[in-house]
């Protein structure tokens, strides 16, 4: 089984997670930039974070035969912090990088005027850089937040098929699919969407323009929820081709719109170490490729 996690925050995960993901079938992932739980106090913290997302983290993923790409953005929550606003000026420098396949995650947290400004500005950046967009929907007021999100997406003029609206549920999926956007679902261990509800949704809405992710981060989350969803699909009568469609071909099609998705293996410049550092304190695991 070949899996692609289209939304996972590996910065917050361990090498054990990478090994378990590889064993479960994960061969590729996209790591959107997000809020780290602790407020950042300056733009410099974002420079280091974005550099890690295009440097150290793909290197770490490659040690486990997983192809790593990322999305960069000023996240909705920190869009409210005046100390972080200059991140918007920093983004064009990163949006031209090889392994940056989208702008994200952007959207609403508390639906403030500051979030409005950052959301619209970053949709415009996506249009200018011809990149897909990953949009986060708020966990509170999800229905009204999703409606407003779709209005802003429409007003931006971006092609809806270049937008995934994420963290959806039974109440928000129809509006997103009707708008022509991709529908993203984050499958969590305790709260929100689980793999059984996810499979019920797949039966109801079909497999087209659907992305399933684990969204695993520093909170209670499980980087193997993509595999759990795949297993639940099979147990519910979906075929292996259906699983491959949702868990591999859909994310490849969505992020492939960037023209930068490279699934032939780890990044070409990835060697034994990254800027002189490696993850090894013992013997190196055998070399692998993302496709293998
Ligand atoms: Zn996220």
From TrEMBL:
Record field: compositional bias (Basic and acidic residues): 271-283
Keyword Hydrolase recorded: yes
SUPFAM superfamilies the UniProt entry points to: Metallo-dependent hydrolases (SSF51556)
GO molecular function: hydrolase activity
Sorted UniProt keywords: Hydrolase, Metal-binding
Renumbered residue ranges of the record's region Disordered: 264-292
Gene3D superfamilies reported for this sequence: Metal-dependent hydrolases
Family the entry assigns: Belongs to the metallo-dependent hydrolases superfamily.
UniProt protein name: TatD family hydrolase
Organism expressing this protein natively: Streptantibioticus parmotrematis
